[in-house]
Amino acid sequence: MSIKHESTLVHNISDFMADALLKHRLLFLTLGLLVTVFLSYQGFNQQLSPGFDKAIPLSHPYMKTFTNYRDEFGGANRITIFVENKDGEMFTPEFFTVLEGITSEVLVMDGIDARTVTSLFTPNVNYVAVSEEGFTGSRIVAADFIATPERIEEVKSNLFKSSEIGKTVAKDLSGALVIADLVEVDPITKEKIDYELFAEKLDKIRATYETEETAIHIIGFAPFIGDVIDGAEGVISFFVITLIITFILLHFFAGSMKLALAVIATALISVSWQLGLVKILGYGVDPMSILVPFLILAIGVSHAIQMTNVWRIGVVNGEDSVGAARHAFYKLFIPGATALVSDAVGFGVIVLIDIPIIRELGIIASIGVAVMLLTNKIMLPILLSYIKLTDKELKRAEGSIKGADHSFWAMLSKLTDRRYATIVLVFAFGLSVYTLSVQDQLIVGDVEAGAPEFWPDSQYNLDANAIQENFSVGLDELVILAKADQKGSCVNFSIMQTIDDFVWQMQNVEGVQSVKALSQVIRERNIGNYEANPKFLGIPRNEKMISANIYRVEMSQALFSNDCTIMPVTIYLTDHRAQTLDRVMDAVKNFRELNTNEHVDFVPAMGNAGIMAATNEIVAKAQARIELILFAAVGIFCFVTFMSIRATICIVVPLALVAYLANVVMVYLGIGLKVSTLPVLAMGVGVGVDYGIYLFARMRAHMTMGESLQKSYYESLKEVGTGVVFTSVTMTIGVATWYFSDLKFQADMGILLAYMFFVNMLGAIILIPALASFIYPLKDREGTVQESN
Q1: 481-491, pLDDT tens digit by residue?
Q2: How far apart are CA 144 and CA 121, in angstroms?
Q3: Of the residues 552, 587, 609, which one is the last residue of a structural domain?
């Protein structure tokens, strides 16, 4: 069917709504302001709501293992405090006084599982030696220890008899660790741990005990999220900077402070409604999703600029404020609503990722976009209807609008000519081929060691590097459970030998720093029984000998379960880069496939590295599915709006090309696809569709009136092209300032969003006319545009 004969139902709906809105504008404005006051109050009471379990993909098979056995073998929510003597070895009274003080404070902290606290001053850190009577042992630091030179020398002697060097004591003897697991929910009060308060207590420990001679290094989820919260508080400054930049650019673009204030006010109202509704619905704002209100602000500004620009054109053409507001609503409500629904779909699609923190982010963002149907499409036209431009402002607006009627748009409209369109489409096709060739280089997971959410010189990463360099156990633990089919398997030679074989295989995988398992304890004690004769460095075949070797092994070491059916194997990794996790997990899977002992299986995975591996798999599987659903949903909404497959193709194809090119950008910038970046791509598509819908809606309106494709596109560029370009530049500059954030993940998101905002604009204004020139029949393309002076 020809464009000229398409149904006018959409226009009739817009016409009816415009009349109803402005007829009762005072009522709608009053209701809107009352709702704004109420929701703003709710939003101001919103608090950050971090949680360790929110980052866990609980449906993944690995995490089922994690949740089933976390109470018995400990979770991955752990803090590690490294007390370091800067001047040399730790055997000084001052050092032991500090270590004992920190251990005592950690033991009584709310949120700490006291059973898991590990330090030289806790009874679960001991030594075992072989004497004439057999195995003897005791605590490395006695319960009645006093930091005198004689007792310190005794501790030093005990330490060399133990296997704690490299585990709880630094390899160079410069310091020692205090380790403890956290309890996410208090079993008595049922209250969740306050991570912000907990992180403040850790900071207080650092401030209390750190001196010129003693350094305190702290890592773990709690200090990590504490640093994120600190960085998130600095986000407020970026919020203010973005508002200032946007206001200045808006004032320059609109030529009126009143119009600039109307745009800013509408965008801020959208953010306040979002935060208020999120609070009412019971959702908290996670520190990792603190940037969502920024995105809502940017989208709000984008839509407000389009509405304001069309209103200005109406006023310059002689309409009064009310008539211009009605005309702007009539023109933009349907395409704007379609764009916002598409935005909401873009955000809503990420809810399909089975990770609570991402689902929460998707819900919060969708709520923010949904409220814009009321704030931007209803409240803004009402506000504009009350604005009166002065003669000076009217002249500036008239000059600005006449400036839009220039030769650049006429030149760009020639892309509807198939001669020029062919060049554009061939170039786009070449980019598509290149993107496919680079696609495989995109890394799922972390690209860097340490915490990639922070800059390399951040306090957290400096602490992590200090611990990584001084200990052999590593910071990233991958725990594989050796599950036997019968009780008492700890003393079964066949099973223990299979576990020992597994340990040996893992020790020889690149990226593995060390491995801890019960089989190693048995081997070490067995050789001790035979005066270190290397012939006996193995698993004894006699059950009684094995039983003797595991005698007095502390249950707190989490080397076996109470019934000896489960024996965890802890693999300490050099880092948690995606390549390292993939390599080690592949080795685990290969061993399971080749394992011929049917009485024991090796079940992944626990530990923080296990969570990361599961998360990476979820993200990798979700990527293609999300992209497919996202583009399908956006395509359906575009089709329903325009009732045209041709229109849908013209809008969706540029979006898809820009989205896949984003993968190339991530490859070259060294940004991995993970929890914090996958939503950005979905959001970028949701936001980018705005440009295409606004441009195509105006182009189609002119084609409906019988104008040629080139003329129609030229007129659409005059009407909304300047707004589209200005919006893109404003949003790009706003998010580009994030590069200077203290949080590296915010800087990464800023780079990606800046790319998506700007390149989506280029894709819309260049690819849409080129595609339309080949998709629409000749009768809709006939005619040429007359350039204006």
Answers
A1: 999 988 888 88
A2: 10
A3: 609
